């Protein structure tokens, strides 16, 4: 009888651990997707900033070259 209760307790504990691990996995997948979205947004902002900076530098160079000719 005690062996049967011990097996039931072990099965319940394994079920709880399994459930907790699945929840942890789901949370980590969600976190991973959020981080990828954030990385994309950050890269997009940096790329736009770089494009603006390059455009401004090219305009300055073009104006400087035009005034020296």
Question: If you had to describe this structure to a student in words, what would you say it looks like?
Answer:
97% of the residues lie in helices and 0% in strands. The protein has one helix and no strands. The longest helix has 67 residues, at 2-68. It is rod-shaped. The N and C termini lie far apart (101 Å).
SSE layout and pairing:
Elements: H1 2-68
Determine the fraction of residues in helical runs and give it as a percent range.
over 70%
What radius of gyration results from the CA coordinates?
30 Å
Total E-strand runs: 0
The run of helices and strands is H
Class by helix and strand content? Answer: mainly alpha
Major β-sheet annotation: none
Instruction: Outline the low-pLDDT stretches.
Output: none
Distance between the termini: 101 Å
Strand content: under 5%
Shape: rod-shaped
Mean of all residue-level pLDDT scores? 89
Tally of contiguous helical segments: 1
